[in-house]
């Protein structure tokens, strides 16, 4: 093993850190980055270790088997991710707006996102050429008012067949059906083009312009059954003035959307985002 | 006359700037700062000039009389504020939280706010000593569930008798009655401790903590009959994380509230905030 | 004529605005955006008007001829840019880092930059494919220690032959010779990857890491003979911590560089940046 | 014992976390907040634990004695701070500018700063009244060109006699002599009114205005023998434009200075700032 990652969530109690860090030290691992958090309201404990594991004499399967005893004792949800094993596979879903897609593809090709791209799904054919130029498969699956069930069955199949484990809605303007939300719970990341909970739903920049806010924002969150209401991963804002028209807001907002989504996706891929009820713990 | 200020709102049409700037030039005035804005949706035009008026041979009353012809022609709402004349008089209203009050008093004593302080009104007696230390009158007017009408009559009287023309709600936790909102329309400035329209109403930091937002904010706005829904003057935010408890949000929020309110009040006193329906034009 | 733009710099004195705005009104133009600034230290006056000119009965040449009398009287440097005439032509120069180039090309193709791309010049051949995919000519002109004079002669020729009027150094890691700086004075825009004047020169992120700063930045400026010392157009920063390695700073810095350069170029193309000695007036 | 704090710096090696966290668990302590950092360049390890210690059966002296064995084994610099023991004592030093002083006193009285105020030292008598109103001793010790040695001897005596362990230079415009810098190494906090390393030395806002920067900043750092070159604790910035005069920069800068200094002092008092050569590790 080389660089590995241990992520743990469990009920908080005395001795977790001692027990886990001792276990890793005994096996020969060296903790190079450590984060932990106790949620005093829910009594949950969250932990993430980056471990230099080259001196651990056993392989990841054996390590996991040995760790399972501790995990059971503390009632942990946990994963041990081995850097040498399979990378995460991202399915990106888009409509017609290209800015988030192009930004993600650029960051991916520049090595900022530690994943493979399993493909791009769109309800329109507009963005095919830039996707294929990157050597990535483009799936055009139109979603119409009278074919939603079929279309989302095709989408689910495309996700499955391409072995994707993370789905990024990079300005995908369709509502994801509840069954898909639940099957990929905690694995679907959306960018909403407002500072949630303000301006949920449609046309948030128009809403923002009408209200006369002095800052616009974007929100990256996990998708749940309730629209625009899932756990927030990251948000950011941009100052605007009375001079800005709605189309200025749209233009300025694109930059926030890109950077907020990119940070959210990067942190998710690095297992830095732990879900805590309807909130997130982000070890950034 | 020395430094003066001309503020104009009117229906937009060709020739306003030419006419007004020519008038000022003819009279001998020199424009040292100029701002203007056309709202394409409402068709309204907004303008603010700072004028070095020492070479204008007539006094402000004569100037106003001469300007009235242009104003009528263009259907203007306007004011000519003479720097040598009476300063604005601020009535500050507070409950028990002192941070915005103390910040405003400090900025006022440091010369950052071009106004007189007409007094401080509070429904509690807690903040008397710091106010009186600044040589300012403190009016303790308790607002109880069974005396609201009387209390607000006393408040209105205190505003009148102290000749206040601007009212700043510096974390005043009572709802202002509609009659007062209307009498002092565009003259009552509130600080709300959230990034409106998110978390209007009570306990916004608790709401923010429950929703798990990654940024908290504050909003300075004019008070209208509808709670927390008046024209927004200024907003700002502060980044927070899963580590922050609600009381951390309250503490961090104090700094945003102070600076957002101070900027809003300063701009209002400098006639930089022009109301445009339920929005503002801010020539900052 | 349709949308036009008037930009003026001259010694400050009473009556400029009156004279110019009256002239435009007489000709039938409507000012849709106006900005002006008086530099009290240098006594210079700066002005920029956006003019809706469809009701001006004469063409741009006739307009310029008529305006020349005013310009002479007030000793103005000025230009009247007619939106229907030729767009500015951008020559982008790069080395091996692609982020600023790709960002500019994306914004250009999305319509955010009002210009034509005259071509891309690089001392390396690495970025040819992405440039040519956009249908833009790529000029590979290697600059070596022993061919600098020849190489820059070729570069100058490429700029000339492609009729470029604005040169953007989008992480071009060579020093521009003084003769080129002077020939294209006020037309060469550079992005420097630090918050100038901190960390001028080579390897600014390494310098920043060594000094232990808590914010890193980027600076967009006009190029002059003195390295990294020309008039600053725009700057921005990003928070960093002790956790960030130099390569983290490089990664995070890319996002600041992209957005700072894009804003600077956009404002330059809109004639919003006026040079005032070694500073800029930016009517953003 | 109730809430305690363990801060450790030592050469990095495998097993530190395991050893320390096991020790705390064995004694009955519960870690409520944990931070750690490995500096890969210097090979140093940094750690800070907040410990709920009410179930630790021994007192702090006994705890320290028991921990000393581990500390020696790992060659640690360390401290165990017992929340029930003596608070830190702050000596604030000022000249004539009051904003940082007033801000610190307000935050202290609002409970944001966990310390006692040992007194205020100034080379001028101007700020006596606001200090004494808070019930704090004011030491007027003029520093003149011909009495520096005597004056700083008096200052050192005032620090000693008032049992101060932390010195905050809240816009104290005198240079601290090297002997004092060394005696209180890592205990003297300064606010410099620029974004260091830009504009070190005198009149930074004038320097910033002359250079035409688009952002101004402030820097909180530990004082060392070399002027404005000590380890940086915190920095922040504020956007400015060509409209701002030097005195506007001074006014806007006051707000950054206040908040940057307050954060730096707060983190220092919470033992969140660990010195790492000429840099800092800040567990904020």
From TrEMBL, chains A, B, C, D:
Keywords recorded for this protein, A-Z: Hydrolase, One-carbon metabolism, Purine biosynthesis
Signal peptide from the UniProt entry: none
Record carries keyword Hydrolase: yes
GO biological process: 'de novo' IMP biosynthetic process; one-carbon metabolic process
Enzyme Commission number(s): 3.5.1.10
Gene3D superfamilies noted in UniProt: 3.30.70.260, Formyl transferase, N-terminal domain (3.40.50.170)
Domain ACT: 5-84
Active site (catalytic residues): 228
InterPro entries linked to this entry: ACT-like_dom_sf (IPR045865), ACT_dom (IPR002912), Formyl-FH4-Hydrolase_C (IPR041729), Formyl_transf_N (IPR002376), Formyl_transf_N_sf (IPR036477), PurU (IPR004810), PurU_ACT (IPR044074)
Catalyzed chemical reaction(s): (6R)-10-formyltetrahydrofolate + H2O = (6S)-5,6,7,8-tetrahydrofolate + formate + H(+)
Domain of life: Bacteria
Pathway: Purine metabolism; IMP biosynthesis via de novo pathway; formate from 10-formyl-5,6,7,8-tetrahydrofolate: step 1/1
The keyword Hydrolase belongs to this UniProt entry's keyword annotation: yes
PANTHER family: FORMYLTETRAHYDROFOLATE DEFORMYLASE, FORMYLTETRAHYDROFOLATE DEFORMYLASE 2, MITOCHONDRIAL
Function: Catalyzes the hydrolysis of 10-formyltetrahydrofolate (formyl-FH4) to formate and tetrahydrofolate (FH4).
Protein name: Formyltetrahydrofolate deformylase
Gene: purU
């Amino acid at each position: 093993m080389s660089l590995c990652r241990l992520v743990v969530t469990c009920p908080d109690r005395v001795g977790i850190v001692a027990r886990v860090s001792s276990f890793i030290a005994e096996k020969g691992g060296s903790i190079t980055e450590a984060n932990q958090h106790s949620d005093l309201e829910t009594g949950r404990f969250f932990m993430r270790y980056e471990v230099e594991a080259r001196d651990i004499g056993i392989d990841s399967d054996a390590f996991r088997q040995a760790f399972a005893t501790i995990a059971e004792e503390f009632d942990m949800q946990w994963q041990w991710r081995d850097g040498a094993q399979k990378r995460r596979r991202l399915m990106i879903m888009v409509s017609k707006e290209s800015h988030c897609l192009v930004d993600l593809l650029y960051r991916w090709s520049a090595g900022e996102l530690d994943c493979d791209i399993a493909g791009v799904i769109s309800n329109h054919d507009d963005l095919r050429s830039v996707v294929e130029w990157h050597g990535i498969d483009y799936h055009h699956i139109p979603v119409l008012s009278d074919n939603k069930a079929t279309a989302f069955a095709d989408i689910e199949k495309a996700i499955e067949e391409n072995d994707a484990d993370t789905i990024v809605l990079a300005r995908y303007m369709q509502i994801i059906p509840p069954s898909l939300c639940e099957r990929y719970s905690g694995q679907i990341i959306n960018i909403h083009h407002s500072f949630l909970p303000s301006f949920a739903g449609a046309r948030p920049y128009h809403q923002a312009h009408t209200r006369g806010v002095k800052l616009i924002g974007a929100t990256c969150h996990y998708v749940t059954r309730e629209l625009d209401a899932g756990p927030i991963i990251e948000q950011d804002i941009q100052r605007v003035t009375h001079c800005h028209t709605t189309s200025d807001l749209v233009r300025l907002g694109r930059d926030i959307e890109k950077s907020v989504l990119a940070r959210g996706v990067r942190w998710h891929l690095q297992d830095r985002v732990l879900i805590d009820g309807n909130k997130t713990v982000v070890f950034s």
